[in-house]
Amino acid sequence: MESAIVAAITTLLTVVQTVLPTISGATASPVIISVVTALEIALFPSATSLFQSIKNIIASLSSNPDTPAQQLATLQQLDAQVDTAFEAIAAKTDPDLPSGDPLAKKS
After folding, report:
1. Tens digit of pLDDT for each residue in 63-89?
2. What is the spatial distance between Cα 72 and Cα 15, in angstroms, rounded to a whole number?
3. Residue 68 lies in a domain
4. Is-contact 66 32, C-beta < 8 A?
5. Integer Cα distance of 44 and 104 in angstroms
6. Residue 11, CA distances (Å) to 1, 3, 65, 98, 100 in order
7. 10-residue stretch averages of pLDDT, the chain, 107 residues long
8. d(CA 24, CA 67)
9. pTM metric for this prediction
10. Does residue 23 sit within a domain?
11. How much is the pLDDT for 46?
12. Is residue 102 part of a domain?
């Protein structure tokens, strides 16, 4: 079930990345607000396969001059969450960690 959800979200994020460069003008703010809300929902702990798509969308929305200030602040928070989650996962799976390191994987 979870893999189907991740697949659906991945497809949605791919579509969003494709159309983001074309969003501007009067419709930009409502679309951006909706995308930011969707990103907040998409950031569940097991969504590691979605991190790059989410980072790309955050970068695209952050650079869009039509992004409202409140959504820009939310995007900055989401970006920090993605970075923190990615680093936590990377630390747990790093095969180069010394065996005495408490984060090293147990065999």
Report:
1. 888 888 998 999 999 889 888 877 877
2. 21
3. yes
4. yes
5. 24
6. 16, 12, 26, 38, 41
7. 69 79 77 77 61 84 89 90 79 62 49
8. 9
9. 0.57
10. no
11. 54
12. no
Residue 46: which domain range?
Answer: 2-18+28-93
Query: What's the total number of domains in the chain?
Result: 1
Question: Which of 4, 91, 24, 20 is CA-nearest to residue 53?
Answer: 20
Domain assignment present for residue 103? The answer is no
DSSP result, 13-65? HHHHHHHGGG--GGGHHHHHHHHHHHHHHH--TT-GGGHHHHHHHHHHHHH-T
Paired tokens of 66: 């039509």
The token pair at 74 is 């939310």
Which residues 6+ apart lie within 8 Å of 24 measured at CB?
Answer: 64, 66
The pLDDT assigned to 73 comes to 93
